[in-house]
Design goal:
alpha+beta, eight-stranded mixed beta sheet, 462 residues, five-stranded mixed beta sheet, 17 helices
Length: 462
């Protein structure tokens, strides 16, 4: 770079950067999510941000994910070395685009060190080279849980997922939400029963999954473009529009399974769905928090059973705020054995962005400090330090102002950062072992003995 050239230091498109108030909100939400995950026995793991490219592509490039390859930039004197060696094949590396494929590799690498069923959570950043737009990022944090077993996995693990989703979103207090539950076997079984060919089912599921985005008429048109007869397409539309209470829908599905032909897979899906719903109820999830929605398909190919999508009522345009499902083959791909799993994912970066924009969430104060000890006199700094430390030892977050400036300016500084209380100690207060405690929210100022200061602050913090 020539001397004097300007460097473009703006944030790369699609790569978020948080102000302190935004980052504190993210950490607050992460703490809630972590507590709920751990209350169900999920344990944390971490996988590398970079994986071998062949690992990430082991199940194909799922969905529309665009993988970021890693290509090292070497100094000129080592360029020939790089050209000669070349990172290809098993040496080619890329950034992970989700947590699930790396989980499969993690289990394969540590198979003999893990206990099954293996329940893990991971709240890492992932990377996708998609077009950056409002609410869509190229770098974002996903909060995932998965339970993986060897050979068999109880459907009660599927039932736990709505309970976990409910606890998280009730703790965050984002308003009314609805967990929509379905089973892919119900869909595929119905498609078979109305004569849809095996090789057409995958594309049919993908089309049905777009119902909310493209509408009923476009779904019907797209089905017919795939070679589905108009009569079959109409039956599919009527099927995915079946509504009513959870029990009413289950009864309707059982009736269909008894009266259609080739319904073995449909019956199995209905039975699994019934088991999951019973488990959800036994876990105490309120009836208004979940429903059966036969249009929920989850477009990714690896889902084979239960699927979930969570919608914020009144803000449906936000899309699914938590989704997931059961899979049979994905995690065992590197070991060549059946390893069923079930999991959910919260795209936290996208969720925060959209909830802030909708006014559902607000950022936190720019600092975690609850109190500022102001600087009245430089010669009292030893007192300020001791008082600050006393407050911290009582569990109160404190900023000590080391810079002498007008008292009003110090109040402004505290208020700008969202600090509610200021401790004021001048020479007279120090001699009497007292302080003035000012509440910047109410303007109230009270005199407090230093020995009682921590308790008074905690009482006022509530």
């Amino acid at each position: 770079m020539a001397k004097g050239d300007k460097i473009n230091f703006s944030t790369p498109s699609g790569f978020p950067e948080f102000l302190p108030s935004e980052k504190r909100l993210e950490l607050y939400l992460l703490d809630i999510i972590r507590r709920v995950f751990e209350s169900y026995g999920f344990t944390p793991i971490e996988t590398p941000a970079v994986e071998r490219l062949e690992v990430l592509q082991a199940k194909g490039n799922q969905g529309d994910n665009i993988i970021y390859g890693i290509d090292p930039i070497l100094p000129p004197n080592r360029q020939a070395e790089r050209d000669k060696s070349g990172e290809t094949g098993s040496e080619a590396r890329a950034l992970k685009f989700d947590q699930t494929v790396p989980l499969a590799a993690y289990i394969a690498r540590h198979l003999n060190e893990l206990t099954f069923p293996f329940a893990r959570y991971q709240m890492d950043v992932v990377f996708r080279g998609e077009r950056a737009k409002d609410g869509r990022f190229r770098q974002f944090r996903q909060c995932d849980i998965d339970v993986v077993a060897r050979r068999e996995l109880s459907l009660l693990y599927d039932a736990q997922m709505p309970a976990i989703i409910t606890e998280i979103f009730e703790a965050i207090n984002i308003g009314n939400f609805l967990i929509r539950i379905n089973n892919r076997k119900v869909l595929t079984g119905f498609f078979k029963s109305v004569g849809i060919a095996e090789d057409q089912i995958k594309s049919c599921i993908g089309i049905v999954d777009n119902l909310e985005k493209i509408g009923e008429n476009k779904v019907k048109q797209d089905l017919e473009k795939e070679g589905i007869l108009a009569e079959q397409a109409q039956k599919i539309i009527e099927f995915i529009k079946i509504n009513g209470s959870v029990d009413e829908i289950l009864d309707k599905l059982k009736h269909l399974a008894e009266n259609l032909s080739e319904t073995e897979q449909l019956s199995l899906g209905v039975s699994e769905l019934e088991t999951v719903i019973a488990g959800v109820r036994n876990l105490g999830v309120a009836e208004n928090r979940f429903c059966i929605d036969l249009s929920i398909a989850r477009g990714l190919d690896y889902y084979t059973g239960t699927v979930y999508e969570t919608t914020l009522l009144g803000h449906e345009a936000l899309g699914s705020i938590c989704s997931g499902g059961r899979y049979e083959e994905l995690v065992g791909v590197f070991l060549g054995e059946k390893m069923p799993g079930v999991g959910i994912s919260i795209g936290l970066t996208r969720l925060i962005s959209r909830l802030l924009k909708a006014g559902i969430l607000s950022t936190l104060a720019a600092t975690p400090a609850q109190v500022m000890v102001v600087n009245m006199q430089e010669d009292l700094m030893s007192t300020y330090l001791k008082v600050s430390q006393h407050l911290r030892q009582a569990g109160i977050n404190v900023i000590t102002n080391f810079d002498k400036r007008p008292l009003g300016k110090q109040f402004q500084l505290a208020d700008k950062q969202g600090i509610q209380f200021c401790v004021i100690i001048g020479s007279e207060e120090a001699a009497a072992q007292k302080s003035s405690l000012k509440d910047l929210k109410t303007g109230e100022q009270v005199e407090v003995l230093l020995v009682d200061l921590a308790e008074e602050v905690k009482k006022r913090l509530g």
